[in-house]
From TrEMBL:
The lineage of its organism: Bacteria, Bacillati, Bacillota, Bacilli, Bacillales. It holds the Pfam family UvrD_C. GO terms for molecular function: 3'-5' DNA helicase activity; ATP binding; ATP hydrolysis activity; DNA binding. It comes from the Bacteria. Residues 13-284 form the UvrD-like helicase ATP-binding domain. It catalyses: ATP + H2O = ADP + phosphate + H(+); Couples ATP hydrolysis with the unwinding of duplex DNA by translocating in the 3'-5' direction. This is DNA 3'-5' helicase. Keywords: ATP-binding, Helicase, Hydrolase, Isomerase, Nucleotide-binding. Coiled coil: none annotated. The keyword Secreted does not apply. Its EC number is 5.6.2.4.
Length: 610
């Protein structure tokens, strides 16, 4: 049932500030700027509900949301799915920039002229080896790191067609490969090829513009030059309506090529209306005192975020801990985490340990100490993306459903997937439904029996192959186009087998192994860059010292933004730890004294010495 625009209300009884509501109802291009926790991502989810429920995104047109990371794209998709009625979420597509570009390239590969067409099974680069070899074939030795970065950067950041012979040669080597070089593309090259396809094929461009009537761009402050170019090529001057949300003060990807003037260019190129939000729905009022100080350091205009009314004004706590060495520091972290879990009933996944960089190095001691308290923690980096992969979710939910027939979430997940794979969405034919259910139930019994007999990794791997075969790889690829090209799906299956089996060997129980793989009972440890967009009841910022911020004097603004992103992830408890000795080195906090000064200035941070 279509809801009229006037009658539409935010889902889940959420109260939105007036400006947020206005921006949702704005059907033209818009830019929403707001601080951390203001509800920018939530606004996109609500706007999707508004557009679909009021049919402002006219059926069968779709909304395309583009994020940076897989977990952000999945988070947005989940929020819309939770809020919306009538299966309308099938017209909400949430992707990363990388998957969007790759989707264009893989679908329209043959629209490229032969000289720029990669072989169909090109490899997505995970390192620079093939690039170095290709330049090597032109007599350019890239053993020097700086030189390598310059050449690869030039190669992968200039639009096609190439004007320089050298780059043209290397491009063609990487597109086609030869006896020494595997055909390899990185995501910048994939984006450049996608832009080239769109620039030279008006019919393809038109079909994209016809499919998507609304585009959402999350974390817009971190958009790179090429990402902006593909958006402009696709939707510049079209009837499509764009909504970008972002925060200048959370710009932490300049080092990775974020376009520093992206807001200004977007407002000009897309003639968009700007909206600014003032709430912070995430953090307790005392933590907002810190955010206010940092915020006013980062921008000229003074700004005080308003807390959500669910908080009382004395809620929120922030502390800096000074320890003589990192062993003592770890013990205090472990004790505090144990208190949070046992006394305050904070779930494991609502506690996060963040570091500026080198998670592996920082994690070892903390993980060992937490183990003494029977608390698991892990470096989340390698799991974060894998856990959000559709194929991984499909396999895991199949296993869960096989192991526990009462797991209704898992069953619903695989049942809905199966209905889509079979193209039976909305069918009223009871016979078809009954047959499909019978088949799926039978398959789950088979999986359960097989799981009971597994004694090594190879057997688990072959079980996962069986699961994919049951749903049918071609149907999976059709439904999840990100798996349509190359060996990516196999790599994910192998990684899943590897991790899952290690957890199974530890517990000898499949449910526990799946829980451990999903990290349900472990404290995540990650870098600030990886926790962008996430939130936790308690955040421990470990190693708050000059060594972690080693280039602070050269990039004070960007590092202060990073500090801001880190501290603004906390809802209620925030801890900074400083240890005089770490990794056998002395630590100082002179260079980042301005960050300490801001914490003190807030008047809410307590200091403790161990
Ligand atoms: N109107 C609202 N009322 C109550 N809670 C809200 C509202 N909007 C958002 N929230 C909640 O506030 C938290 C922060 O929202 P969200 O993640 O959308 O913020 P954001 O602006 O994208 O944050 P950041 O830029 O820091 O990643 C989430 O837990 C969300 O569910």
């Amino acid at each position: 049932m279509v809801i009229s625009i006037d009658a539409w209300k935010p889902s889940d009884g959420l109260v939105l500030e007036t400006t947020a509501l206005k921006s949702i109802r704005d059907l033209k291009n818009s830019l929403v700027t707001a601080g951390p926790g203001a509800g920018k991502t939530e606004l996109l989810a609500q706007k999707a509900c508004f557009l679909l429920e009021t049919n402002s995104c006219v059926n069968p047109k779709k909304i395309l949301a583009i994020s940076f990371k897989k977990d952000a794209a999945a988070n947005l998709k989940d929020r819309v799915k939770m809020r919306i009625s009538n299966n309308l979420e099938t017209r909400f597509i949430s992707q990363t920039y990388d998957s969007f570009s790759k989707g264009v390239l893989d679908r329209f590969l043959y629209a490229l002229p032969e000289e720029y067409r990669p072989v169909e099974d090109y490899v997505v680069a995970t390192n620079d080896n093939e690039f170095v070899k290709a330049f090597g074939e032109c007599g350019i030795n890239l053993s020097n790191r700086k030189l390598k970065n310059i050449y690869i950067n030039n190669l992968t950041n200039s639009k096609l067609p190439n004007s320089l012979e050298l780059y043209d040669f290397v491009w063609k080597k990487l597109l086609q490969g030869d006896v020494n070089i595997k055909p390899t593309l990185n995501f910048s090259m994939i984006t450049l090829l996608a832009i080239y396809i769109l620039e030279t094929n008006p019919m393809i461009l038109k079909s994209l513009r016809t499919t998507y009537s609304h585009i959402f761009l999350d974390e817009f402050q971190d958009t790179t030059y090429l990402q902006y170019e593909i958006i402009k090529t696709c939707f510049g001057g079209a009837k499509t309506s764009l909504t970008a949300v972002g925060d200048n003060r959370q710009r932490i990807m300049l080092w990775a090529g974020a376009k520093h003037d992206v807001f200004k260019c977007y407002k000009r190129d897309f003639n968009s209306q700007e909206y600014t939000l003032i709430m912070n729905h995430r953090s307790a009022p005392r933590l907002l005192e810190i955010q206010k100080i940092v915020n006013n350091y980062l921008q000229d205009e003074p700004f005080t975020p308003l807390p959500n009314p669910r908080w009382s004004e004395d809620e929120g706590s922030a502390e800096i801990w000074y320890s003589s060495d990192s062993t003592i520091e770890s013990e205090h972290i472990a004790k505090r985490i144990s208190d949070l879990i046992n006394q305050h009933q904070v779930p494991f996944r609502d506690i996060c340990i963040i570091v500026k960089q080198s998670v592996q190095q920082y994690s070892n001691e903390i993980i060992e100490t937490l183990e003494k308290f029977n608390i698991q923690a892990r470096n989340e980096t390698k799991f974060q993306d894998l856990l959000k992969e559709d194929i991984v979710l499909l396999i895991i939910n199949t296993l869960r459903s096989a192991l526990n027939a009462r797991d209704s979430d898992a069953w619903l997940f695989i049942w809905n997937s199966q209905i889509f794979f079979e193209g039976k969405n909305g069918t009223k034919n009871q016979l078809i439904v009954d047959n499909m259910r019978k088949q799926l139930k039978g398959f789950l019994r088979y999986i359960k029996n097989k799981l009971d007999l597994i004694t090594d990794k190879e057997e688990l791997s072959s079980l996962f192959i069986d699961i994919i075969a049951f749903y049918d790889i071609n149907k999976i690829k059709k439904y999840y186009p990100q798996y349509s090209q190359g060996q990516y799906i196999n790599k994910l299956r192998e990684d899943l087998t590897e991790y899952m089996y290690v957890y199974f060997e530890k517990s000898n129980d499949w449910i526990l192994a799946i829980n451990s793989f999903e990290g349900i009972h472990s404290i995540p440890i990650m870098t600030i860059h990886k926790c962008k967009g996430l939130e936790f009841e308690a955040v421990f910022f470990v190693g708050f010292d000059d060594n972690a911020f080693w280039s602070f004097s050269n990039q004070e603004d960007e590092d202060t933004c990073t500090f801001f992103v880190g501290l603004s992830r906390s809802k209620r408890y925030l801890y900074f730890t400083f240890s005089e000795k770490r990794f056998g080195r002395n630590c100082n906090n002179f260079k980042i004294s301005i960050l300490y000064q801001m914490l003190h200035e807030s008047g809410v941070v307590e200091e403790k010495y161990y």
